[in-house]
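Title: Request for sanity check on Allantoin racemase prediction

Description:
We are preparing a figure and want to confirm that the structure record we downloaded matches what your pipeline produces today. Could someone re-run it with the sequence below and paste the raw structure tokens into this thread? We only need the token string, no images.
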Amino acid sequence: MARVLVIVPFPMDADNLEKRKAQLGAVKLGPDIAFDFKPVRIAPVNYVSQQDSVLADVGMLEAGLQAEADGYDAVCIDTVSDSGMAPLRSVLNIPVIGAGRHAMLTALMLGDRFSILAMWDRWRHLYAKTLAELGLGAKCASVRSAGLQPNNQSLLAGKEDEFFPALHEAAMRCIEEDGADVIILGSTTMHEAHAYLAARLPVPIINPGPLTYRLAETAIRLKLSHSRVTFPSPAAPATARLAAMGDAAARV
């Protein structure tokens, strides 16, 4: 059986981890593939600054460093920021799938211009970075925020009546005012709103987390992985040092 490691970008308890695992219910996968969800040990409080981005990269790298040695066939990054994706590709030979860039590229299979529907404005820099790396600025109709304070632990639980209509209103503005013909959820923490929005929007809406699971399954079946030309191996892997950092973070 194929095994995929899903790296969750924040430390969390078992109950909150189940809310992340619930993303699996949004996509039908083969019976011969299993997904394990692993929270990081090193992480910022949230992804709102350049400092946070560095900590996120280190935490995701530390969490996934041994994935191949542990027998996993692919890794999924459970954040639209794609934190740690590039570093992990440099040290792993198995596919590493980032939620952000793959959602954007998939959007262009479904339409001509997409909008990113965000919870709040302080995530805007994350999308700008990926759009610039992919050269897709002209294909992004807008990045719109619903002005909602996210919770990376409890997600949207208990706030559905307030948050879902606000997200729908922002999504409709993306379509009617900005000209988007595809919508991308701007965070895997928003996955609980996907079914509500998909039933009410006149255009496709991409749920980035479940998309990575399908892409990981496809990459495994097709025996595809990233290019070593783009992601060269490090001259001196920092496995022991990163593990020590993770041990220190876990003791705090």
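Thanks, this matches our download. The chain has a mean pLDDT of 95.
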